[in-house]
């Protein structure tokens, strides 16, 4: 490990590291547009120019390798004036679009214009105009005017997504981005280009114009789209999820996430078919009920069956905590028939991020004990046993079994008691006798364990009737902080849904289960006590990026 | 107790006090016969000039559409959080427009910062000062009440430009 | 029969006077508001009736319709009694004020004063105004509020202090008139021998003391809104508040009438007898003169209120004891010397 001097301070570097990388490691950010830590170096924006002693010309920090004894100045007069000149050039043809640009507020060009430019332009000629509002693919919109030709998007497609779809065309100030003839930007990771585009040239068509970034709160969570468990931020305004963005975690997803996870894992949270309060089937169909009613009814009815007649279906989309309490309840009732359905979609995985297992927590469900106890029945066997009237009561957690296979529908119809925990009405709730509204993954605390055995926290971003944004420590935007129920944006819809673990806890109390938990954290603590490999791991230990636990435990 | 000496002691005339009383009475007496300044609202209405900051309104272009591009800067700068905007996409060249634009007049403090920050000259302070409502819901002014033809706002816009 | 007629005449005089007082007082409020407006370049009340002339009635109706609130902590009987005591004192004082010379109607000499021949007339006035202090002090004390109490305490201290200079100023006048009878005092000021000219110092101390006695600005410390909210009447509302209000303006009118009687020659018009008018005309002009002087003084009261700011309480006491009292004494000596020289 060599050493060189950066702004009068001696710092170390690994062989082959560039100046910008070595500086980043000690927390010095050298301005950059085209350089990205996980893409190749292209060196075409020139904003990273620094002065290196004994070099005749300024050098770009992103492509110059650090060497022993080098003396680098990032704030010298020469470096500064060069940077200001680069900013001025970049802004020559850049439109004054910030008011309508979705990137505003998280735009590198805005930030650097603010911090590194002279603040005015000497350019009086007509700006170069390019095509605006060009759909590059199903999810991404391109604005030619705003592009600063950094080539990050091109390199992302080539190097990360592995599908060359984008390229530069033309030269000089006419240069712009296009898809290759006959191609569209539609690789499974295409929306990542909107994250890395330093300006607002590439925007997410799903999120376009929905909200200003400064009006939203963002909550660190985990994508529930597949067993990878990409780290994400959930962006919420007025209690409504508006977008997800990947959050850097070098152990899991680096800087990326797939389009499927980004777009399709949260739409149900704000959907119109949410189960907004408990329901009981009466003669005329499902009708609203109070929590007390459904608890007493469910516990009384469960009580009337022998343990062999009851089965529990857990879920790999629920948290470890939810499944832990489910298995606690099952063993309290001496029920051995407990399992969860798998959602493996063959061929849907790849070598980048996506996994064939479409659930985020299969390893966690297993660790929490959601598997048939000795002589107990597995998922398929339970369904068969229902058909043959051996099993008469079934509790289902957040799984739409009826939609999985036609044959399950007829089986479910045989049941004398079907209790379903669901966030949205679906084919299974159609058949249920009791429907209990379950909080979605954006409305509760908990842990997912991914296919590598990495336990990662999810956090509530959407408030429910039971969860208060400020009292329960949600991240809050300015609007959340100062809104009142008299403001239209403060007077938002909150669903009356509870996390599955709390539902099982309350139900368990009626059935004689002795357990006392206040928070999801308490449930997790109880889980770690009973699960080898997790001993002593707290929520704090998991932190923002999670922790990989002993692997051999978690074979799905 | 030590007697405090004044910085400047009163002269005898000042101490007698009566002359100043008489002078004071003289002033009020004169005033009784001077013209009065009272403006007899509501028969006589106050007509503010361009510099007046009445309730903020949205500029409506000649084609009937709003000039606003829903950038949200006014909403961000508003110290009273009075402005609520929902942006949406439009076919027009400006791409973006406010699908919903609401000012809560119970929150607004007529500071004019929204007008100052607007990059499009799309929200300006009008001359309207008669703002009354009987419940909280009515206090939220939507686009129907905010949009004002640009012709009516000419004086204010010129005033703003003169100030820049 | 004779006593019945006397009683009848007295009743008529009472009725006329009471109506005059009530009307004047309500219009005093109106003019108070008008004059304050004019002094401040405003217009003043002009909505009810022509030029707002019906405003006093609107005010009265408003006060009548208001809820009467009595504080929980109040001593209720006294709290209720106090405003009416104030009103009573204010009205009974008028009895001895002569508002014209004796006139002869249907062969009967009628004195233009309700109770003309009390030979302790002026003492009666002084005695009654002292009782007025009780009304204010009691109201302040019985309200059960610290603001009211402070107002009441201030009022008693202030009134006692100024009563002294007032009394000594009056003494100067009595030296000249040699009588306590108000009508005699008036008669003693024939021609230009008005006490105001003969004893200017006494005049000034008396007027000042009158301001203090009526709690008018610049001596309205018992009310002092900025510090005491409303002083002794903070806890009063509706009719009881109106009673205090009425009493204040009635007091102002008495004070004016007293000043006219004692210092400005009462109903006397200098050298009127030289014009040789008939007795009837003379009487009419003299009554008119009395009321003109009265109106001017009441205007003066209002005018001062809107021109001069309130004193500080210590200044008020300072002036009362260290300035007014010695000056009044000085005036007595001056009056005595003058009386010896003239007579
Ligand atoms: S890309 Fe950045 S600088 Fe350009 S218009 Fe958008 S926000 Fe403004
Ligand atoms: S579209 Fe964005 S990422 Fe792509 S070259 Fe232009 S500025 Fe860079
Ligand atoms: S600042 Fe102007 S353009 Fe932006 S949202 Fe407000 S009114 Fe519209
Ligand atoms: S005038 Fe001030 S308070 Fe009112 S809407 Fe504009 S910024 Fe907000
Ligand atoms: S970051 Fe170095 S040239 Fe762009």
Q: How many beta-strand runs of chain C?
A: 2
| Cα Rg of chain A | 27 Å
- Gap between N and C termini of chain A: 42 Å
Q: In percent, how much strand structure appears in the residues of chain A?
A: 15-25%
Gyration radius of chain C (Cα, Å) is: 21 Å
Strand order of the biggest β-sheet of chain A:
15-14-20-19-18-16-17
Q: Which two chains touch over the largest interface?
A: A-B, 22 and 23 residues
Which band does the percent of strand residues of chain C land in?
under 5%
Q: Helicity level of chain A, as a percent range?
A: 25-40%
Strand order of the largest sheet of chain C: 1-2
Mean pLDDT value of chain A: 92
Average pLDDT of chain C, rounded to a whole number, is 81
* CATH top level class name of the domain at 279-439 and 497-533 in chain A: Alpha Beta
**Might you state the CATH topology name of the domain at 279-439 and 497-533 in chain A?**
Rossmann fold
Number of strands of chain A: 23
Which word captures the global form of chain C?
A: globular
Ions, cofactors, ligands: which are bound?
A: iron/sulfur cluster, FE2/S2 (inorganic) cluster
Shape of chain A: elongated
Question: Which characteristics define this entry?
Answer:
heterotrimer; A: 556 residues; alpha+beta; Rossmann fold; seven-stranded mixed beta sheet; five-stranded mixed beta sheet; 17 helices; 23 strands; B: alpha+beta; Alpha-Beta Plaits; three-stranded mixed beta sheet; three-stranded antiparallel beta sheet; 6 helices; binds iron/sulfur cluster; binds FE2/S2 (inorganic) cluster
Describe how the helices and strands are arranged:
The complex is a heterotrimer of chains A (556), B (164) and C (343).
Chain A: E1 2-6, E2 9-13, H1 19-25, E3 49-52, E4 59-60, E5 71-73, H2 77-92, H3 108-116, E6 134-135, E7 140-142, H4 152-161, E8 166-169, E9 176-179, H5 192-196, E10 202-204, E11 217-222, E12 231-237, E13 240-246, H6 259-264, E14 279-282, E15 285-288, H7 291-303, E16 310-313, H8 320-332, E17 338-339, H9 362-367, H10 379-387, E18 393-397, H11 401-404, H12 406-413, E19 417-422, H13 427-431, E20 434-437, E21 446-449, E22 454-458, H14 478-482, H15 500-510, H16 520-530, H17 539-542, E23 547-548
Parallel strand pairs in A: 1-5, 16-17, 16-18, 18-19, 19-20
Antiparallel strand pairs in A: 1-2, 3-4, 3-5, 6-7, 7-10, 8-9, 11-12, 12-13, 14-15, 14-20, 21-22, 22-23
Chain B: H1 12-16, H2 18-32, E1 56-60, H3 73-77, E2 83-89, E3 96-104, H4 113-117, E4 123-125, E5 140-141, H5 143-146, E6 147-149, H6 154-163
Parallel strand pairs in B: 1-6
Antiparallel strand pairs in B: 1-4, 2-3, 3-5
Chain C: H1 2-39, H2 55-65, H3 76-92, E1 103-105, E2 108-110, H4 121-142, H5 146-177, H6 182-187, H7 195-198, H8 200-213, H9 225-228, H10 238-263, H11 279-305, H12 313-342
Antiparallel strand pairs in C: 1-2
Helix pairs in contact in C: 1-10, 1-11, 2-10, 3-4, 3-10, 4-5, 5-8, 5-12, 8-10, 8-12, 10-11
């Amino acid at each position: 490990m060599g050493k060189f001097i950066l702004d009068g301070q001696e710092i170390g570097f690994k062989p082959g590291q560039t100046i910008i990388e070595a500086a980043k490691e000690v927390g010095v950010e050298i301005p950059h547009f085209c350089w990205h830590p996980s893409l190749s170096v292209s060196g075409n924006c020139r904003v990273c120019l620094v002065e290196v002693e004994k070099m005749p010309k300024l050098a770009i920090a992103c492509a110059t390798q650090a060497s022993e004894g080098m003396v680098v100045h990032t704030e010298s007069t020469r470096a500064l004036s060069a940077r200001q000149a680069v900013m001025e050039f970049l802004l020559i043809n850049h439109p004054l679009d910030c008011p309508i640009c979705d990137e505003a507020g998280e735009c590198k060009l805005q930030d650097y214009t603010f911090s590194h430019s002279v603040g005015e332009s000497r350019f009086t000629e007509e700006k170069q105009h390019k095509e605006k509002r060009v759909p590059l693919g199903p999810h991404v919109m391109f604005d030619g005017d705003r592009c600063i030709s950094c080539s990050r998007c091109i390199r992302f497609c080539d190097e990360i997504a592995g599908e060359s779809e984008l390229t530069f065309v033309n030269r000089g100030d006419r240069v712009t981005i296009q898809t290759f003839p006959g191609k569209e930007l539609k690789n499974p990771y295409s929306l990542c280009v909107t994250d890395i585009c330093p300006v607002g040239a590439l925007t997410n068509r799903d999120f376009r114009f929905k909200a200003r970034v400064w009006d939203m709160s963002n909550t660190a969570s985990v994508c529930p789209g597949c067993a990878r468990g990409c780290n994400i931020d959930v962006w919420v305004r007025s209690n409504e999820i508006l977008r997800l963005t990947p959050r850097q975690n070098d152990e899991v997803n680096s800087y990326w996430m797939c389009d499927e996870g980004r777009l399709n894992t949260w739409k149900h949270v704000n959907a119109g078919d949410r189960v907004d309060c408990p329901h009981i089937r009466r003669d005329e169909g499902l009708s609203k009920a109070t929590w007390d009613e459904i608890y007493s009814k469910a516990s009384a009815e469960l009580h009337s069956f022998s343990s062999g007649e009851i089965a529990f279906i857990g879920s790999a989309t629920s948290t470890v905590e939810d499944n832990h309490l489910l298995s606690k309840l099952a063993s309290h009732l001496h029920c051995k028939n407990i399992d969860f359905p798998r959602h493996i979609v063959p061929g849907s995985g790849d070598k980048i991020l996506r996994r064939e297992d479409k659930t985020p927590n299969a390893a966690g469900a297993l660790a929490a004990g959601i598997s048939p106890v000795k002589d107990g029945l597995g998922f398929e066997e339970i369904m068969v046993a229902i058909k043959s009237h051996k099993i008469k009561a079934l509790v289902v957690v957040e799984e739409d079994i009826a939609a999985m296979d036609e044959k399950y529908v007829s089986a479910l119809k045989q049941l004398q008691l079907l209790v379903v925990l669901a966030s949205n009405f679906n084919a299974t709730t159609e058949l249920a006798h009791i429907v209990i509204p379950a909080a979605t993954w954006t409305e509760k605390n908990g842990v997912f364990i991914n296919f590598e055995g990495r336990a990662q926290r999810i956090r509530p971003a959407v408030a429910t009737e039971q969860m208060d944004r400020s009292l329960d420590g949600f991240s809050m935007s300015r609007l959340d902080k100062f809104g009142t129920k008299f403001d239209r944006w403060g007077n938002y819809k909150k669903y009356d849904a509870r996390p599955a673990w709390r539902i099982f806890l309350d139900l368990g109390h009626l059935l004689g289960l002795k357990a006392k938990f206040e928070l999801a954290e308490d449930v997790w603590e109880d889980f770690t006590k009973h699960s080898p490999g997790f001993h002593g791991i707290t929520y704090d230990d998991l932190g923002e990026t999670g922790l990989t636990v002993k692997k051999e435990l978690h074979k799905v | 107790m030590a007697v405090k000496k004044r910085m400047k002691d009163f002269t005898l005339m000042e101490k007698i006090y009566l002359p100043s009383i008489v002078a004071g009475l003289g002033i009020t007496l004169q005033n009784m016969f001077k013209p009065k300044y009272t403006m007899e609202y509501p028969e006589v209405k106050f007509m503010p000039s361009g510099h007046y900051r009445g309730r903020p309104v949205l500029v409506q272009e000649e084609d009937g559409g709003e000039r606003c591009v829903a950038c949200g800067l006014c909403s961000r700068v508003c110290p009273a959080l009075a402005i609520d905007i929902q942006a949406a996409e439009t076919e027009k060249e400006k791409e973006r427009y406010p699908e919903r634009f609401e000012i809560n007049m119970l929150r607004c403090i007529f500071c004019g910062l929204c007008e100052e920050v607007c990059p499009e000259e799309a929200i300006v302070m009008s001359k309207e000062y008669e703002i009354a409502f009987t419940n909280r819901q009515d206090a939220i002014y939507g686009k129907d009440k905010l949009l004002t033809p640009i012709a009516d706002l000419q004086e204010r816009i010129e005033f703003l430009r003169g100030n820049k | 029969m004779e006593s019945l007629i006397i009683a009848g005449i007295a009743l008529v005089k009472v009725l006329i006077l009471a109506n005059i007082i009530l009307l004047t007082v309500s219009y005093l409020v109106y003019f108070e508001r008008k004059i304050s407006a004019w002094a401040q370049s405003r217009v003043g009340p002009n909505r009810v009736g022509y030029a707002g002339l019906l405003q006093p009635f609107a005010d009265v109706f408003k006060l009548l319709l208001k809820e009467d609130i009595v504080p929980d902590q109040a001593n209720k009987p006294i709290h209720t009694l106090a405003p009416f005591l104030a009103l009573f004192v204010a009205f009974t004082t008028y009895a001895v004020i002569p508002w014209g010379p004796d006139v002869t109607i249907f062969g009967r000499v009628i004195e233009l004063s309700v109770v003309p021949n009390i030979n302790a007339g002026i003492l009666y006035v002084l005695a009654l105004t002292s009782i007025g202090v009780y009304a204010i002090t009691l109201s302040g004390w019985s309200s059960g509020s610290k603001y009211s109490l402070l107002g009441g305490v201030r009022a008693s201290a202030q009134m006692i202090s100024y009563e002294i200079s007032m009394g000594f100023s009056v003494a100067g006048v009595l030296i000249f008139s040699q009588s306590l009878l108000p009508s005699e005092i008036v008669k003693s000021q024939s021609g230009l021998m008005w006490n105001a000219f003969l004893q200017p110092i006494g005049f000034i101390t008396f007027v000042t003391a009158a301001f203090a006695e009526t709690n008018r600005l610049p001596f309205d410390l018992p009310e002092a809104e900025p510090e005491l909210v409303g002083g002794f009447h903070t806890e009063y509302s509706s009719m009881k508040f109106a009673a205090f209000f009425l009493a204040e303006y009635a007091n102002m009118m008495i004070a004016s009438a007293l000043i006219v009687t004692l210092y400005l020659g009462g109903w006397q018009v200098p050298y009127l007898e030289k014009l040789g008018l008939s007795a009837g005309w003379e009487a009419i002009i003299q009554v008119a003169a009395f009321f003109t002087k009265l109106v001017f003084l009441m205007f003066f009261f209002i005018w001062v209120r809107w021109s001069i700011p309130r004193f500080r309480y210590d200044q008020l006491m300072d002036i009362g004891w260290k300035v007014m009292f010695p000056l009044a004494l000085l005036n007595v000596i001056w009056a005595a010397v003058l009386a010896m020289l003239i007579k």
